[in-house]
Amino acid sequence: MPPPADRREVMPVAGGSTLAYRVSGAGTPLFCIPGGPGFGGDYLGDVAGVGTTRQLIVVDLPGSGLSTKPATSQGYSLDAALAAIDELRLHLGLEKIDLFGHSHGAFVALAYAARFPRHTGAIVLCSMPLDFSSPPDQNLCFVKPDAQTRDYMQGMIRGANFAAFNAFMQDRPQTHEILALLDQAQRLTLIYGDADPVRPAAAPEMARHDMRIIPGAAHFPWWEQRAAIRTAISAELDGPSPALG
Fold this sequence. Notes:
The chain is of the alpha/beta class.
């Protein structure tokens, strides 16, 4: 039986705004947090096929994608993003959520896990920067930036809300500060392409976590190495994944 078609949902959140999210697939929910800051979640697609075994809840963070743009910069804050994700968890009636985050979204997922450990299950973080002093060079985000890849990247940029990016860069929290707040029992799965410009050369604070390197990929590994990253994600969430094309 084919998985259910994607559906778009919107829910009210604190302050009179709305939070948009996309639901696809069937199975145990997996909250998917896109990067940017300011990118809507559509670029994540079906997360390299993970949506064949999981129900994906792809969140448009406040001000991104189809979610309401906040009236002030505070609405783009990390606190606002974490509150919105937890409101969505409650709205869906879930006690615990598994998390997948990409790039800045991985940082947000990490911060959620640190703030709400009782409500967090598995945590898979893809291409998470340790330092947000500057965004990764677009020319280094893909191993082979062909015409199709450039169209994919430009689609993300056209749909981005740069007010979210600017607000985040003003505050610029650092990943190591959040890592230090994790409960000692919490374990992360960290995924990087071997050519990812944000891949840490050495990160002692990550030593107790599981790091997986995807050969032949850069900052968007599901675009370049779909099968390999699906295997890495699914192995953490559900054990070995089925062989899908």
